[in-house]
Amino acid sequence: MNRILVTGATGTVGRQLVRTLLEGGAQVRALSRSAARVEAALPPEVEPVVADLADPGGLERALSGVDRAYVMLTDDAGAAFAKAAGATPGLRHLVALSATAAEHPWFDNPMFRKHVQGEVNLRGCGVPTTFLRPCAFSSLALHWAPAVRGDGVVRVAHPELTVPLIDPRDIAEVAAVALLGEPDVWARRALTLSGPEQLDMPDRARIIGEVLGRPLRVERLAEEDWVRAASAQLPEEYARALVGVERYFTEHRQPVVNTVEEVTGHRARSFRSWVSDHRQAFLG
Burial of 107 by CB count in 10 Å (0-12 exposed, 13-18 middle, 19+ buried)? Predict the structure, then answer.
C-alpha cells in the first residue's frame, strides 16, 4: 500500500487530494503546523504530522516511512523540502504543485521566481518528480465576494486579462493519478493544466452574476490605484508582484490544454460549474 505525505493538506487543493488518495486505497499522512487543524478538517484515518515547510529537520521526520509525497512550493522555493527529500531513503516519487510561471523563466518577478527556482531545487534533490503547472485557480474569484455582497462593482487593473481558469478539484485529481500510479510513468514530467475556456474579467463577472442572480460589473483601475487599494489587505510588495503577473499574462495569453482530460478521463470543469458549487461562499 502506498504511504503518501500531503503538504498543504487542509488547503484548496490538498483537502480534495487527501480524500481522493484515501478513495484510491493509500495511507495518507497530512503535514500541517497544527495537528488540531488536520483532525478538524480531514477524515479520521489521516495521520497528522506537525512540521514547518521551511524546517528540513521537521520535514525529514514527516517523510520518514513515506514512499511518495505531494509538495507545495513556499517562499523558500522548496529548498527545505528538497534537502529533506534528498536525505530520505525509500522516497520514490514527488508530485509538486508549481505553476505556468515556470514556463517563463526569463520574466523577473518574485511570484515567477518561486516556481522557476522551486523546480530547480526539487530536480536537484535526486527524487523523481512530476511538476504540475496549473493556470490561475477558479477559487481566486472568491476575492470578489465583497463586491457580490456590496455595490456589485469589481475593480481590477487589467480587465482584458484572459485566462483558462482551472478548478482546484481538477488539479487534485491529476495529482492523485500521478501519486497513485507507477513513478516510472509519471516522474520527470511537467504537466501544464488549464480549464476548458478562456475568460476575461468581464466574462467572469457575467458568469458569477448569472449564477448568483446578482449583477456584477468590472471597473478598471490604474495599476498604482489598484496596488494602493490592494495593499490594505496584502503586503505592498506582493500586490506589486501580482499586478506585474497580470500585466505579463495580458501580453502572453495562456492556452487551453487538454491535460486534465488526458490524465483523469473527464473534461476539465468549467468556471460556471465551480461558481455554482460555491454559491454560499460568495453570498456569505
Answer: middle
The H or E element that residue 277 is part of is helix 271-277
Share of the chain above pLDDT 90, in %: 82
What element of type H or E holds 250? helix 236-251
| Angle between helix 79-86 and helix 56-63 axes, rounded to 10 deg | 50
CA–CA distance, 81 with 95 (Å, rounded to integer):
12
CA–CA separation, 35 and 10 (whole Å): 11
Residue 249 has a pLDDT of 95
**For range 162-188, the mean pLDDT:** 95
pLDDT bin (cut points 50, 70, 90) of residue 33 is confident
Residue type present at position 134: P
Phi/psi of residue 169, nearest 5 degrees: -65, -35
The whole-angstrom separation of Cα 243 and Cα 247 is: 6
β-partners of residue 28 are 4
The DSSP output letter for 101 is: G
Complete domains list, the chain, with CATH:
3-136+168-195+255-268 (3.40.50.720)
* DSSP secondary structure letters along 129-156: EEEEEE--BGGGGGGGHHHHHTTSEEEE
The count of C-alpha atoms lying within 13 angstroms of the C-alpha of 192, restricted to the half-sphere facing its C-beta, is: 12
User: pLDDT tens digits, residue range 102-160?
Assistant: 999 898 888 889 999 999 999 999 999 999 999 999 999 999 999 999 999 999 999 99
Residue 280, pLDDT score: 95
